[in-house]
């Protein structure tokens, strides 16, 4: 059974800093790895999806990498802004959109 | 604009009562999902449906029931058999369940049992 872990659970950084969020998974037989953003009391917004055959995906200031052999993915946020403050969740897809979610990292970017 | 609408946003229930959460999508997606989120935790899959009149149990289906009579609608009933129903419930949809189909989420419904 897939298990997904995100460390740290919370992170606070000053505005402008580059940062990395970590995601680890136990079963490397994944279709893809997805990153989502969740604002307080809201639903999830898809940020990036990395196919199992890919090593990374980029969208604006966000870059996600995938290393299946080590069971790890990272989300890199460049030049962080207060508007980036949210909870970031990763999810591993082992069976066609049957996602296993991590517990999330709650990010606060201070002005 | 296309999207997913969940209602109500907030719901209070007395112990022993069944409640139904609504989820409607106008994205023409075949697959729909219900997730439960507890504070500080990730999402756990309750039920999913790949096509009208068909649905399967997820990881935590006990105490819940669903129906899929229309492509656009996938209501979730939280029954009195659910021992700890207070949670944030999220509905999602995707084009299908195969391949790299991105999930679109609704804004969620927060259920509190009094």
Explain this structure.
The complex is a heterodimer of chains A (111) and B (114). Chain A is mainly β and 111 residues long. In chain A, strands 2, 4, 5, 9, 10 and 11 form a six-stranded mixed sheet that branches. Helix content of chain A is 0%, strand content 58%. Chain B is mainly beta. The termini of chain B are far apart. In chain B, strands 2, 4, 5, 6, 9, 10 and 11 form a seven-stranded mixed sheet that branches. The interface between A and B is medium-sized, with 26 and 30 residues.
> Which percent range describes the beta-strand content of chain A?
over 45%
Mean pLDDT of chain B: 92
Indicate the proportion of strand residues of chain B. over 45%
Helix content of chain B: under 10%
User: If you compute it from the alpha carbons, what radius of gyration of chain A comes out, rounded to the nearest whole angstrom?
Assistant: 13 Å
Radius of gyration of chain B: 13 Å
Mean pLDDT of chain A: 94
Shape of chain A: globular
Instruction: Please give the largest β-sheet of chain A.
Output: 6 strands, mixed
Query: What series of H and E elements makes up the topology of chain A?
Result: EEEEEEEEEEE
Annotation, overall tally of beta strands of chain A: 11
So how many helices of chain B? Answer: 0
State the order of secondary-structure elements of chain B, H for helix, E for strand: EEEEEEEEEEE
The total count of strands of chain B amounts to 11
How would you classify the quaternary structure?
heterodimer
CA(first)-CA(last) distance of chain A: 41 Å
Given the C-alpha coordinates, what overall shape of chain B results? globular
Count every helix of chain A, treating DSSP H or I runs of 4 or more residues as helices.
Answer: 0
Unreliable segments of chain A (pLDDT under 50, ≥5 consecutive)?
Answer: none
Biggest sheet statistics of chain B: 7 strands, mixed
């Amino acid at each position: 059974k897939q298990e997904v872990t995100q460390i740290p659970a919370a992170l606070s950084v000053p505005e402008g800093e580059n940062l990395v969020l970590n995601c680890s998974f136990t079963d490397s037989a994944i279709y893809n790895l997805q990153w989502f953003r969740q604002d307080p009391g809201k639903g999830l917004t898809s940020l990036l999806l990395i196919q199992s055959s890919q090593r990374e995906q980029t969208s604006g200031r966000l870059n996600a990498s995938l290393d299946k052999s080590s069971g790890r993915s990272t989300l890199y946020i460049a030049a962080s802004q207060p508007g980036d403050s949210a909870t970031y969740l990763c999810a591993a897809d082992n069976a066609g959109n049957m996602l296993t979610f991590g517990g999330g990292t709650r990010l606060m970017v201070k002005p | 604009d296309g999207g997913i609408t969940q209602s109500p946003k907030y719901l209070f229930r007395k112990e022993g009562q069944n409640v139904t959460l609504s989820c409607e999508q106008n994205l023409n997606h075949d697959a729909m999902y219900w997730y439960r989120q507890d504070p500080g935790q990730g999402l756990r899959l309750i039920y999913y449906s790949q096509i009208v009149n068909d649905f399967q149990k997820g990881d935590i289906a006990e105490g819940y029931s669903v129906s899929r009579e229309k492509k656009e609608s996938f209501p979730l009933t939280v029954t009195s058999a659910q021992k700890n129903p207070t949670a944030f419930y999220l509905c999602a949809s995707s084009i299908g369940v195969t391949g790299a189909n991105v999930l679109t989420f609704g804004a969620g419904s927060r259920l509190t049992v009094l």
